[in-house]
Structures are given as C-alpha cells and as structure tokens.
Amino acid sequence: MHGHQRLNRLRMMAPSIFQCAVGAGLAWLVAKDVIGHPRPFFAPVAVVVAVGVGFGQRLRRVAEMVVGVSLGVGVGDLLVAWIGTGSWQITLVVALAMAVAVFLDRGSVIALQAASSAVLVATLLPPSGLGGLDRMVDALVGGLLGLAAVSLLPASPARLITRHATALFGALASTLRATADAIDQSDSALAATALESARTTQEHVEEFRQALDTGREISLISPVHRRYRCHLEGYEKAAVPLDHALRNVRVLARRAMVALDGGSQLPPWLPGALRELADAAMLLCDELAQGGSPRKACMAVLTVASRQGSERWGFSADVMIAQLRSIIVDLLEATGTGRGEALSALPPLDAPHRPGRS
C-alpha cells in the first residue's frame, strides 16, 4: 500500500479513532468516579469493541461484548472460587466459557470476550464479593457509551459513504477510459494496466458495503443523523449494481487485452462509448452525493445505450460489446431503473458482421 493510500485510510478511520478514544476515557470516568468501581477495566474495552475502527454491526458488537463478558466473568468467578487458579484451571475456565458462548451464539466476539474475561478473572482479577456483577456493569456502561460516541460525536454517515462511493465510481470510470485509450492506440499493454488497476477494487467494494451498514446504523441510533436516511437510499439502490459493473469492467479490460494481442477487429464507435459511459458514471456519483434523484445520469446512460452499433464483429469484439451492454444495464439499475426497463433500452443485436458486407 502506497503512502497516499495509507493517509487516505487514516483520514477515513479518523472519526472512529476519535470516537474510540473519547468514549474509552469517558467510560473509565463514569464507571470509576460515578458508579464507584475501583478498576473498571471492561468499561473502556467495551467502548473499543463497540466502536472499533471497522464499519457496521456496532449494535451487535455491543450485545456480543456484554454477553461475552458476562459469560466469561460468570464462569470464571464460579470455577475460580471453587477450584482456585493455575494453568489447568485456566485451561478449564477458557474451554468452558468458550463452549457455552459458541453454544449460545455463532458470533466470534462473544466467544473471544468470554475467553478473555475468564482468563482475567482467573489471573489478574480474582473474584471478590460482587466483582463479577461489577464487571458486567462495566461492560454494559462501556457498550452504551460506545454507542453514544457513535451517535453524538461527529462522523457524518453520508460523508463516509460518499467517500467510499467516489472511490468506486472513480475506479470504474478510470478503467473505462483506460480501456478506451488502449483500443484507440491498439496497445494491449495499456489494457493490461487497466485490468491490473481494476483488480484492486474488490476491497473497496467491501468497504463501501460496510460503510453503508455503518451509515444505516448511525442514522437509526443517532438523532443528529436521522435526516440522512433518505440520502442513503440512493446509495443502497446503487450498491449491488455498482459491484456488478466493476466486475463487468474487469472482464471488459481483460478481453480488450486479448483482442488487441490477437489483432481482432473492434468497432470504431467503442472507445467513444466507453468514455461517454465513464462520464455518465461520474455524473451518477455526483448526483448520489447531492442526495437527489439521478435523472441526468440516467439520461446520460440511456444516450450511450441508444448510440451503440447493433452489428456484431467477431468473438472478442462481441464479448466486449456484451460487457459494455451489461455495464449499461448495471448503471441504469444503479440509478433506480428496473432491470426490465434497463434491458429494453438496449438495441437488439444483428447477425455477425462480415467485412465487406453492404
């Protein structure tokens, strides 16, 4: 990963890091000075687990954290008070805590928290009086303050999603333009470079999906960000079609490389159509970021569809045309157009083209 990519990732994660840091400090303060627990270890830990530096499923992580800590503390307190501490006692405590956690739920956080909590009870935090109950309360306090940090501290879900969506649309458009340049210059190396760049986009697709989950979650639990719910709908409609478009553009670039290596005849209108589609994709990106209906982008994609040649040119060219048609359908669906309507916007394909045919 290059330096600028690392900086971009840090910028994207900065709100979560800020929320973790502030929430952890507040959780310790509340559990120690307000509730009166002398060593509220689990309170700041619960904040970090709840907020994290990833995206999505924070409500579930809070629930898993509290349940996992409760299981680990409960099993640890019960067994350590009875059998004492030591290597074989830790082995038994961890095995039982994790077994109960896995039996109750398949979530990995529950099992890991149950095991780590049991180890802490068996080693550093031996049971005393109401210690087990206090630790459960600490976990709940930390989880709730973690959710409060997500809800109230600045981290606009729309800005977060727009940032990831812009990266995806940019990758789609740049691959389309690079493929067009490769066809214009009959340069298979350019097509190979476009393909190599497009292959790196799947990680961004996953991060975009997680950002959508996070945005949806924040808009549900945060009174500050509820107004963004309607804004997120456009991105939710576009998520799956955008993933499909990126997959199709990878196939397109691969086939362009093969076609140019083999000297295949390609339609003269194809590079212009690819560039127009790239422009339409970026227009869709802009309209989704503004939160309005992407009518202009829809019209731009329809224009590309209507100006296609309908003739067929041979295997490699036909594969590329098929991928172009698929990307057109994907982008139309991303604008909210139904699949049937998107398919009907494409001209029918004629019989295979033969050179010299009148």
TrEMBL record:
InterPro entries: Memb_transporter_dom. It is found in: Membrane. It is a multi-pass membrane protein. The chain crosses the membrane at residues 12-31, 37-55, 88-104, 111-130, 136-155. This is Uncharacterized membrane protein YgaE, UPF0421/DUF939 family. Pfam families: FUSC_2 (PF13515). Keywords: Membrane, Transmembrane, Transmembrane helix. Residues 26-148 form the Integral membrane bound transporter domain. It comes from Nonomuraea maritima. GO terms for cellular component: membrane.
